[in-house]
Amino acid sequence: MTLSSSNHYVCFRGGILEKKSIFAHILEMETQMGQMHNDLGELKMIVKELLEENQRLTLENDQLRKVLKRESSPETPAPAPKIPVLHPVPAAESTEDVVGEGYDNLARLYYEGFHICNVYYGHLRTEGDCLFCLSFLNK
After folding, report:
1. What's the pTM?
2. Region of residue 54 (left: phi > 0; alpha: psi -120 to 50; beta: else)
3. Residue 139 and residue 134: Cα distance in Å, rounded?
């Protein structure tokens, strides 16, 4: 950018602009840079969320592969994990047997590392025990 001898015009990228339009041009560039900054921040958040989801899905995939491997290897049957039955079901009533079977299935899912609570149902438990799930199991 160079000043002309009359001080009324400024050369800008090979063109001539009046001093008033230079200020307007600077304001426009500042607005565009602000928008680009906001867009970059949004893109960073999207990438962060995608990386977190990828990590969660990788952990869940590894967990599911372990379960599949354990269930599909017939030559070395692994002992089934002991699932404590917190509410024993009387064998006399068939409708309660079905409820007991559902409860046992949920308990098995929980001990395989998945949430069974209504908050995170089906998601992999990554941070130890879930109070919501334990509360549900103890009902």
Report:
1. 0.43
2. alpha
3. 9
